[in-house]
Amino acid sequence: xxxxxPALDTRTAEGSALQAVLLDMDGTLxxxxxxxxDVEVEVFASLGHTLDDSWRHVVVGGPMTRSAGFLIEATGxxxxxxxxxxxxxxxxxxxxxxxxxxxxxxxxxxAELTAHDIPTALVSASHRRIxxxxxxxLGPHHFALTVAGDEVPRTKPHPDPYLAAASGLGADPVxxxxxxxxxxxxAAAESAGCxxxxxxxxxxxxxxxxxxVVGSLEEVDLPFLRGLVTHVG
Length: 233
Description:
Blueprint: E1 2-3, E2 20-23, H1 33-46, H2 56-59, H3 64-75, H4 81-96, H5 106-115, E3 120-123, H6 128-138, E4 145-147, H7 160-169, E5 176-180, H8 183-191, E6 195-198, E7 211-213, H9 222-228
Parallel strand pairs: 2-3, 2-5, 3-4, 5-6, 6-7
Antiparallel strand pairs: 1-4
Helix pairs in contact: 1-4
């Protein structure tokens, strides 16, 4: 976990209890969920196995230990989890090139949060080496804190990453708004007690208490996020 600023000043707009915004990375801010699946298909093809496209919904949004472990078990591939993780991370870095495509509305939302000095964290199940690579496209100055999946005891769908991000920003989780694109990430944020905006990327997500579902980040701005956290609890 890396941080660029000390604990936040918790001043918020009148009528809002919002203290911080916590953002997922793959499929939420950057259009990379397809990248990961393509890499998984290529790596397993090199091992002599064909992935069933229906498995994409199983592995999306999860930590690499879970997704890679599932694919090893499903295919019977003769490879260990540690070795496969290296191959997948290497493949992602090769495929991603220099600049990664941002999701519609991502650049505008990040710029708005930065302009209004909203404490913001990037919270991902991806490993640190991948986050640092993607930050070059997103702009590291937009984030006071970044949390990687290999830096917490348990990653998504457990609450640990979001609890770590809120703690690192000096914020109460119930006064944080989280933006996620998968059921796995939503489960992690809700377990941490956060208000959630779901922007489904691969599989549908249904609305629920403390969970708002939108079609695109184009629908999300600072007033929208402040409106989610109008009271504590």
